[in-house]
Amino acid sequence: MSTVSIITVNYNQTKITEQLLASVFATNAYPAVELIVVDNASKDYPIPAWRTQYPHITFIRSEVNLGFAGGNNLGVRASKGDYLFFVNNDTEFTEGLVASLVAILDNNPRVGMVSPKIRYFDQPGVLQYAGFTNMNYYTMRNRCIGQFEQDNGQYDRNTGPTGYVHGAAMMVRREAADKAGLMAENFFLYYEEMDWNDHIKRAGYDIWLEPRALIYHKESVSVGRVSALKEYFMNRNRLLFIRRNAPSALTVMVFYTYFLLVVTPRNVINYLRKGYKGFTSVLFKAIWWNFTHSKDSTDLGYPLK
């Protein structure tokens, strides 16, 4: 039987993480799992209490906030599973979730990554994700299939290839992770899972959706729906993704032109219209980072608290 390492990262969200764990215990009938929780330098330091409450879970403490990629990579290094199931701590499991994803990887050796269908937790009948379209590298745009639609089962027959898995819930074949390398930690937050998708594709694996498996997502609990931190990394990493994955130098040049002449003024107008103070300087800081740092630089360019 294939073994699964369920890995999640906690950052100042003790109760949310406990709700995830409760949902895992309540719904997971798959027997060959290990649970790994990485605490990313949370201020309240919940691990001592957790070790008493959950003696069969592996807890890892990082004294530095390593971001999404770094925290998950820490979990991978401590894991033993054939498959790695990365879940955001603001998700909740449903019956058969793990077993359904395992079946995809067991029966399709070319599949390196697979995600379940995702619904919004606070609107449980509404879809967040039922696959992604492929990336347009000239504009760095693709589409999340099904998002905001009422889920009437319209995508439940779409088991198979998709453009990208979703970082909130993705099961990865360890062999694929070994060949492609782990997630790039210099993204810190946002786009790292899409970058990893592209690297795993280039390592020779397919990316799939299994819509008959379902998970609920509370979304943006740790960062917030609007914040300077989010705005900085969304823009910085959009540029960084293209630098790391565009098929040619010409593609990079076209995207930079599009970003500077279309995206940047549009964003600035939006900040002014909505009264987002300080966001314009954050945007230009994100752009400047990409002109002054290599695509492998570990300097985040943003002061983390």
Walkthrough of the structure:
There is one protein chain. With 305 residues, the protein is α/β, with parallel strands linked by helices. It folds into 2 domains: 4-217, Alpha-Beta Complex (Spore Coat Polysaccharide Biosynthesis Protein SpsA, Chain A); 228-292. It is built from 9 helices and 10 strands. Strands 1, 2, 3, 4, 5, 6, 7, 8, 9 and 10 form a 10-stranded mixed beta sheet that branches. A hairpin with a 6-residue loop joins strand 6 (111-120) and strand 7 (127-129). Helix 5 (174-180) packs across helix 6 and helix 6 runs parallel beside helix 7 (228-245). It is globular, with a radius of gyration of 19 Å.
Short description:
The protein is α/β, with parallel strands linked by helices and 305 residues long.
Keywords:
2 domains; 9 helices; Spore Coat Polysaccharide Biosynthesis Protein SpsA, Chain A; 20% strand; alpha/beta; globular; 305 residues; single chain
Poorly predicted tracts of residues: none
**Large-scale geometry:** globular
| Biggest sheet features | 10 strands, mixed
Roughly what fraction of the amino acids lie in strands? Answer: 15-25%
What order do the helices and strands follow? Answer: EHEHEHEEHEEEEHHEHHH
Q: Superfamily at the CATH H level of the largest domain?
A: Spore Coat Polysaccharide Biosynthesis Protein SpsA, Chain A
Computed CA radius of gyration, to the nearest angstrom: 19 Å
The overall pLDDT average reads 95
Number of strands: 10
- Please indicate the count of domains: 2
Alpha-carbon distance between the termini?
Answer: 43 Å
CATH topology of the largest domain: Spore Coat Polysaccharide Biosynthesis Protein SpsA, Chain A
Structural class: alpha/beta
Count of discrete alpha- or pi-helical segments spanning 4 or more residues: 9
> Can you identify the CATH class of the largest domain?
Alpha Beta
What would you say the CATH architecture of the largest domain is?
Alpha-Beta Complex
Q: Helix coverage percent of residues?
A: 25-40%
